[in-house]
Design goal:
The complex is a heterodimer. By secondary structure, chain A is mainly alpha-helical. Chain A has a domain at 91-299. Chain A contains ten helices and four strands; from the N terminus they run βααβαααααββααα. Chain A has helices spanning 21-29, 38-46, 91-114, 118-142, 149-161, 164-187, 192-214, 223-242, 244-266, 282-296, and strands at 16-17, 55-56, 215-216, 219-220. In chain A, the strands form two sheets. Chain A has a two-stranded antiparallel sheet with strand order 1-2. By secondary structure, chain B is of the alpha/beta class. Chain B has three domains: 35-56 and 211-344, Cytochrome Bc1 Complex, Chain D, domain 2; 63-205, Cytochrome c-like domain (Cytochrome Bc1 Complex, Chain D, domain 2, Orthogonal Bundle); 370-454, Cupredoxins -  blue copper proteins (Immunoglobulin-like). Chain B has helices at residues 12-15, 18-33, 47-51, 73-83, 96-99, 146-155, 164-172, 175-184, 193-205, 213-218, 227-237, 268-272, 304-314, 333-344; strands at 62-63, 256-257, 281-282, 360-361, 370-371, 374-378, 381-383, 386-390, 394-399, 407-411, 414-417, 426-430, 435-441, 448-454. Chain B is globular, with a radius of gyration of 23 Å. The two termini of chain B are 17 Å apart. The chains are: A mainly alpha, B alpha/beta. Chains A and B meet through α5 and α6 of A and α14 of B.
């Protein structure tokens, strides 16, 4: 995964709440938010709406997919890789986010497998075991969920072997483990709908980072990061679909807008194999993510 | 020459209670290993008790082949090439590696693989680790050697659908293969059926599973296993009774057990023509399990958790259930997790690559026997294991064990099958001709009794 120092927008959970446009503008003026971040675009387009409920991250040191370790674990860049932990994010959301990152990897990897692109898929089956699983071992214990490192590795082996039958069985085994973990999270959650929405926003934030890392001007330089971001966005949508009934009850209009935002956002990834030129530039994608966040705020 | 089976105890079945059998099996299993058994359900097993098991699971210092030439580099390399050669199949598309994929730990990752017929096979593809030490091959043990085993899939109409004769014809047209055969078999340099099977067997003998963290612990690294894994080991050797069958460094007693899985497959019973061995299949090794799911002879259990759950609540009760199978086993969720953690510690952390064969090669030679006319069967062992007697003298074999045995002699001079020999039963064998004989148990092939018969004065 990309390991570079940059100013980024970390998403809802990892940033400071900014009450309104004035504060947002202040943050921009203070140089706390990169000019490339969606906040700039959104602030410009949304004016000074006090209810924008935007959150900004200031000059974050970042490693990999949303990888910000807890205070105890943080050690600077390169730490954590995918699925690290953010001190400001609730543990349940962090755990669920990491599970979703695994899901996103498997999702896009599965797309590639179905297209017969086993070699391209391989990395997406290796990353969960190598970069994410280590961060959830403690959570699995806390939630009473059986460990599944071996299942993840065995799944990766079936991809390496390009064995479709074995792959399907191994994928099913991992899916069962993830389902059990997700069920445990749900069972212990007081407000699963809110937890899910927060997870979605974390996931989209990570997708934004990945897309930013993948795209360089009018070229997609990093195929894997492009695919990562696709998997995360696609899985974010699945998460929302899973609670759609609750969200419609809360605010049907906001949910409808959120779905429309997602549909628009997804156009950045026309296929698992990246296009020669980006369908959307980075600013558009990050802005699209912010729009989702804007509407999601009304659903929490 | 008369050979009579004398069932002296018709009420043996009635005497066997499952609880007694399970408990006794545990104690005997520990005794065989020369170490004290872990105490059932005891959370306070002293470390020394656990450490004492190290000897029982130590990896071997030698590999059992009669002739070092069987494992010559040229023969192994030829076997490797043949293993991956699709010319061994009828359609030229399937090789041994098609089902025993090295990238999948020499398994196929599915419950039931498909061969040349395109239909699911009757049994799950077994992994191939550590077969050099195997006593019998296949789930039902119908092959007595790797050479014999190698013929099976080639000639199975559902698997590779060919014959070894055709396979030889297929590869002998290849000049490089002719050269390879000549190098591998300098004493008989030809592409022949025997050589082809011997080469395949040689390659398979090299598939030695690498050392795992458990092996490091066995060798003395106290920190190699986590506390959870050690707790699982305590259960494995104690309360759960796994070690009754999964014994030794390969974690198999090489015996055949009905463990209560669903299905009509008769397994070992069909091979022996012995109803008492119906539904019994060979105890699989537990090495590299993490890489070789799914599990069981029918591939019906997808995960290790499901395997543990089976022994707790999934066993189908029937008369042929193994005496070594724990009855009424109850494990908490934590204990199940500990067992699974331990089982995972028997697998490599990363995809396994074959380790080197042990450096020494042991010669097979009969042990010197003691003069005896009565032999006891106890704890899956003949005692004594090697005897001398005079031709025409009756040899009484007493089942002092807690499990059913099946005394057999497969020899041109004497063919004998005791049928089911229940605990307490005795059989009497009479050897008419001088020479060495091997008496085995059809259900527990590791049981070997060497009989040196001398001519009557």
């Amino acid at each position: 995964m990309m390991m570079k120092r940059r100013k980024i927008w970390l998403g809802l959970g990892a940033a400071a709440m900014v009450g309104g446009g004035a504060a947002s503008a202040a943050a921009l003026e203070a140089g706390q938010v990169s000019a490339r971040t969606p906040e700039a675009a959104l602030v410009a387009s949304a004016g000074n709406k006090a209810d924008a409920r935007l959150r900004f991250a200031a000059n974050a040191d970042h490693a990999g997919h949303g990888a910000v370790k807890t205070a105890a674990a943080a050690g600077g860049e390169g730490e954590g890789g995918e699925g690290g932990k953010k001190a400001s994010v609730a543990p349940a959301v962090q755990f669920n986010h990491n599970l979703a990152l695994i899901r996103g990897h498997l999702l896009v990897g599965d797309e590639l497998v179905k297209e017969g692109k086993w070699n391209d898929a391989m990395v997406h089956f290796l990353h969960p075991a190598e970069e994410i699983y280590g961060n959830i071992q403690g959570d699995l214990k806390t939630y009473g969920v059986a460990p599944f490192a071996a299942a993840l590795k065995a799944l990766a082996q079936t991809v390496k072997a390009k064995n479709k039958d074995a792959y399907e069985g191994a994928l099913k085994a991992v899916d069962q483990r993830l389902t059990a973990a997700e069920a445990a999270v749900k069972a212990k959650s007081d407000d699963y709908t809110r937890l899910t929405v927060e997870t979605v926003l974390e996931l989209l934030g990570t997708a934004g980072h990945e897309y930013e890392a993948a795209v360089d001007g009018n070229k997609i330089r990093e195929t894997v990061e492009y695919q990562d971001s696709r998997g995360f966005v696609w899985y974010a949508e699945r998460l929302l679909d899973g609670i759609s009934t609750d969200l419609q009850k809360k605010d049907a209009e906001a949910f409808k807008s959120l779905k429309a935002d997602l549909a628009e956002l997804k156009q950045a990834w026309p296929a698992a194999v990246p296009p020669k030129k980006p369908a959307k530039d980075v600013a558009s994608v990050l802005s699209g993510i912010s729009k989702v966040e804007l509407h999601a705020g009304r659903l929490m | 020459m008369t050979n009579r089976a004398v069932p002296l105890s018709a009420t043996a079945h009635a005497r066997r209670t499952s609880v007694r059998r399970a408990a006794l099996a545990l104690a005997l299993s520990a005794a065989v290993a020369g170490v004290p058994p872990a105490r059932s359900g005891d959370k306070d097993v002293v470390p020394e008790d656990l450490l004492a098991w190290r000897a029982a699971f130590a990896r071997p210092a030698s590999v059992p082949v009669a002739d070092a030439a069987d494992l010559s580099p040229a023969r192994i390399e030829l076997g490797r090439r043949l293993f991956e050669d699709p010319r061994l199949s009828a359609n030229g598309l399937l090789s041994c590696a098609s089902c025993h994929d090295s990238k999948l730990s020499f398994a196929d990752g599915v419950a039931l693989g498909k061969g040349i017929a395109g239909t699911p096979l009757a049994r799950h593809t077994p992994m191939l680790w550590n077969l050099a030490w195997g006593r019998t091959l296949f789930w039902d043990g119908r092959a007595a050697s790797l050479e014999e085993q190698a013929r099976g899939p080639i000639e199975n109409p559902l698997e590779m659908g060919s014959t070894v004769t055709k396979a030889v014809a297929g590869v002998s047209s290849d000049a490089t293969m002719r050269t390879a055969f000549a190098a591998a078999f300098p004493e008989r340099p030809q592409v022949s059926e025997d050589n082809l099977l011997a080469a395949l067997a040689a390659f398979e003998r090299t598939l030695v599973s690498p050392e795992t963290r458990f092996d490091h612990w066995v060798k003395g690294d106290d920190g190699a296993l986590t506390s959870e894994e050690l707790a699982g080991f305590r259960l494995f050797t104690g309360k759960a009774g796994c070690v009754s069958c999964h014994s030794g460094w390969r974690f198999t007693d090489e015996a055949f057990h009905d463990i209560g899985l669903a299905g009509e497959d008769k397994g070992r019973g069909a091979i022996l023509g012995l109803a008492a061995a119906d539904h019994a299949f060979k105890t699989p090794s537990l090495r590299e399990l993490a890489w070789t799911a799914p599990y069981m002879h029918d591939g019906s259990l997808a995960t290790l958790e499901e395997v543990v759950d089976h022994y707790v609540s999934g066993v189908r009760d029937r008369p042929t259930l193994s005496a070594d199978l724990p009855r009424g086993l109850s494990l908490t969720a934590e204990e199940r997790a500990q067992l699974v953690a331990f089982l995972n510690a028997l697998s490599s952390d990363d995809p396994p690559r074959a380790a080197s064969l042990p450096p020494t090669v042991q010669a097979s030679a009969p042990e010197p026997g003691v003069s005896a006319t009565t032999v006891s069967q106890k704890n899956k062992t003949f005692a004594p294991g090697s005897i001398r007697l005079v031709a025409g003298t009756g040899l009484t074999i007493v089942n002092d064990d807690t499990r059913t045995h099946n005394v057999r002699v497969d020899d041109p001079r004497l063919a004998y099958n005791s049928a089911a020999q229940e605990p307490g039963d005795k059989v009497v064998l009479t050897f008419g001709e001088p020479g060495f004989y091997t008496v085995t148990c059809g259900i527990h092939p590791q049981m070997r009794l060497t009989v040196e018969v001398s001519r009557a004065e």
